Amino acid sequence: MAATERAYRTIGGVPLRYLRSDVRVRTYYARSTAAFEDKLDAFAHDLGRAAPPSYGAVRYIATAGAYVNKPKLHGLGRAFDLDLVRWQGRTCAPIRGHHGHARRAVIRRYIGVDALARRRFKYVLDGWYNAAHRDHLHLDDGGGALVFNAGYRSDTVFIQAAANVMINARLAVDGVYGPKTRRAFATMKDRVGIAHRVSSDARLYRAFLWRLALRALRNKGL
């Protein structure tokens, strides 16, 4: 099976851990396709490059699982569930519901990690997507270009949540790409100096996500 093409316990040199079985932090051995692991490696490198010096190096990444013997992309070795990113000085913990944290700095850190994941993976399902993902980020490389798609709930709820914590847009996070969401997204693109063609130009969308992540990880609005 292609899902067993690679087995590994680090991504991008960062150790993988598993937190869900007990209170101990345990080493996790993941399996996936080679191409998918390459994307995970790039994502892990981004987590180190984008973070400010105060965070320190990434110590470990916790996952709820990668290859699972079930239908769809987990069963193909092309999906990964992210529970937590631990830098030396900061933590982003979807497993602890950080998308709904009381502190804006913590939510912005979650937005930063979410944005970096979207630079590498077509589908990122986060805590705003639905209740099933309130405790992890689901990453997969299902079909389609790495551009913003207003018809995808996964893309739209992320933009709505990001606009709320980065420019105080006060949007309903409902996945509906209406006029208010469109205007808020345009404002964010303008403020990071990115042309509006993020629905057709993957390079521009990735640049937008990178600049958004840099600001969010530093707890700075746009």
Overall strand count: 10
Strand content: 15-25%
Helix percent band: 25-40%
Which parts are unreliable, with pLDDT below 50 for 5 consecutive residues or more?
Answer: none
Q: What gyration radius follows from the Cα positions, in whole Å?
A: 16 Å
Overall body shape: globular
Tally of separate domains: 1
Encode the helix/strand succession as letters.
EEEEEHEEEHEEHHH
Describe the largest sheet.
8 strands, mixed
Structural class: alpha+beta
The count of helical stretches stands at: 5
Brief account:
The chain has one domain (2-217). It is built from 5 helices and 10 strands; from the N terminus they run βββββαβββαββααα.
Write structural notes for this entry.
The protein has 222 residues and is of the alpha+beta class. The chain has one domain (2-217). The protein contains five helices and ten strands, in the order E-E-E-E-E-H-E-E-E-H-E-E-H-H-H. The strands form two sheets. Strands 2, 3, 4, 6, 7, 8, 9 and 10 form an eight-stranded mixed sheet that branches. Strands 1-5 form a two-stranded antiparallel ribbon. Strand 7 (79-87) and strand 8 (91-92) form a beta hairpin. The chain is globular.
Q: What would the keywords be for this entry?
A:
18% strand; 222 residues; alpha+beta; globular; 8-stranded mixed sheet; two-stranded antiparallel ribbon
Secondary structure layout:
Blueprint: E1 6-8, E2 10-11, E3 14-18, E4 26-27, E5 30-32, H1 34-50, E6 58-65, E7 79-87, E8 91-92, H2 104-118, E9 123-125, E10 137-140, H3 153-166, H4 179-191, H5 202-217
Parallel strand pairs: 3-6
Antiparallel strand pairs: 1-5, 2-3, 3-4, 6-7, 7-8, 7-10, 9-10
